[in-house]
Specification:
The chain has 457 residues and is α/β, with parallel strands linked by helices. The protein is built from 15 helices and 17 strands.
Length: 457
């Protein structure tokens, strides 16, 4: 029997960015498949993020999609898998439809966070899709490839929804995978790292918290697991040799187990690389140990910290556990030790008015964050917040099924004004163009950060 040819594809931002999930699938199948199918990876680059609230996520014309579809079909692959996120789902579905028209025998598979929760509806609306992988895909994808050789029946593959004989079926959920079983695509030599590349690695998966706007509170994502510490160290050492621009460690709570995270920081600092390492730390649940802060200070470690909102009722609405006095203490300690970090706020959270958002901005403005980001609320399918949209009066932007345009507490006019403030903050403060002047206004003129920003817009 002829060897299977498989293509893994995704639509990604134009900047150098590695789609790690696809390489995890490839390295897992290559390790455990008896027949070693040929697996190619295609990343279709486009502009992803909108410049204003009227712009939908990616902008790929039908002609460009047809061109990409022809390139894919000409590869003569038997299985085509797409990695789907909120920002690329629409052009991905359009691309799949074109491919199916040209090559009706191709098996098209979707996977990723955007398609893991509404699989039956997606299959009903999109007849070009054959199979959808729910949640983690490594073992599932390996078994799907085995279908071609009749080594397994489709009814036995856990974690999929699929189309067969004119009907749609949903198999049972798959148990979370033991992360020790997943080889490193970096250490396997599958990923080419260039100096301008933005590299990402996982050292854990999942999150133990229940924020209602986050998919980690849904099914297996809630199950917190760790890759072996030795593997993480070897990956970092391998990546640093290529001197990439930046490494992002994709753990949402990097410091949830301080002993483990401190060991990683000591290892990173020991390598003495000039590459920036981005981590996401939880600073609102417990006081960060001074020894840990000193480790953050020693190397080129940049921390991202989610604040989202400082208001108790808002935090309760989204099941977010922020202990503001602890968060304030930690930020003061980071400032005192001159540790670089950036802060994140979310506009449009249920319960937050425009005035309350401004108070959150003023609160974060009292610290020495290198960057402050204000993101519009994204309502992800099947999250607790998604089921509460009517309760909180959430209305969505016409160009996106995820970005809000107003809530019961925030009018559309106020939302647009908040978007202007977010853009001004990023373009003038985060880029450094007017950061010193903005800070001078807050200090010497005794103005609040929100007042300075409102004046600038």
């Amino acid at each position: 029997m002829q060897k299977e040819r498989v293509l893994l594809c995704t639509i990604t931002p134009q900047e150098p960015y590695i789609q790690l999930g696809l390489y995890n699938l490839k390295v897992y199948v290559e390790k455990y498949s008896v027949h070693s199918p040929r697996i190619d990876i295609l990343e279709i680059h486009t502009h992803i993020y909108p410049t204003d609230t009227k712009t939908s996520y990616p902008s790929l014309s039908d002609s460009l999609l047809f061109e990409q579809a022809m390139k894919i079909v000409q590869k003569k692959v038997t299985i085509i898998g797409f990695s789907c996120f909120m920002w690329n789902i629409e052009p991905t579905l359009r691309l799949c439809e074109i491919i199916k028209r040209i090559s009706p025998l191709s098996i098209i598979i979707l996977g990723g966070p955007e398609v893991s929760t509404n699989t039956e509806q997606l299959l009903k609306r999109n007849k070009c899709i054959d199979i959808i992988c729910r949640d983690e895909g490594e073992q599932t994808f390996l078994e799907i490839i085995s279908l071609h050789r009749r080594e397994i029946e489709i009814t036995k593959i856990m974690g999929i929804s699929y189309r067969a004989n004119g009907s749609i079926y949903r198999n049972g959920d798959r148990k979370p995978l033991d992360l020790k079983l997943i080889p490193s695509p970096y250490l396997a030599g599958l990923i080419k790292i260039k100096k301008n590349t933005l590299v990402s690695i996982e050292t854990s998966r999942g999150c133990p918290f229940n924020c209602s706007y986050c998919t980690y509170s849904v099914r297996m994502y809630h199950n917190l697991r760790f890759f072996p510490l030795d593997r993480a160290k070897r990956e970092l050492e391998y990546i640093f040799k290529y001197k990439p621009k930046e490494i992002s460690i994709n753990d949402d709570n990097f410091n949830i187990y301080p002993k483990r995270s401190a060991a990683l920081l000591r290892f990173i600092n020991k390598l003495k690389s000039k590459t920036i390492v981005q981590i996401f730390i939880n600073a609102s649940m417990w006081k960060i140990d001074r020894k840990f802060i000193l480790l953050l200070k020693q190397g080129k470690i940049h921390s991202a910290i989610g604040v989202q909102s400082i208001h108790k009722d808002t935090l309760e609405n989204i099941h977010r556990k922020n202990v503001i006095p602890i968060l304030e203490h930690n930020l003061r300690e980071l400032d005192r030790n001159k540790v670089p970090y950036r802060l994140h706020l979310i506009m449009g959270l249920p319960g937050d008015t425009y005035e309350k958002l401004m108070k959150s901005i003023d609160w974060v403005g009292q610290f020495n964050a290198e960057e402050i980001y204000i993101f519009p609320l994204l309502v992800l399918r099947d999250t607790k917040l998604f089921s509460d949209t009517k309760k909180f009066g959430i209305t969505f932007n016409r160009a996106s099924k995820h970005i809000i345009s107003k809530t019961k507490n925030l009018s559309h006019k106020e939302f647009l004004k908040a978007m202007k403030i977010a853009y001004t903050l990023h373009s003038l403060y985060n880029t450094g163009k007017m950061k010193d002047k903005i800070l001078a206004s807050t200090h010497t003129l005794n103005m609040k950060l929100s007042e300075v920003l409102e004046h600038l817009i």
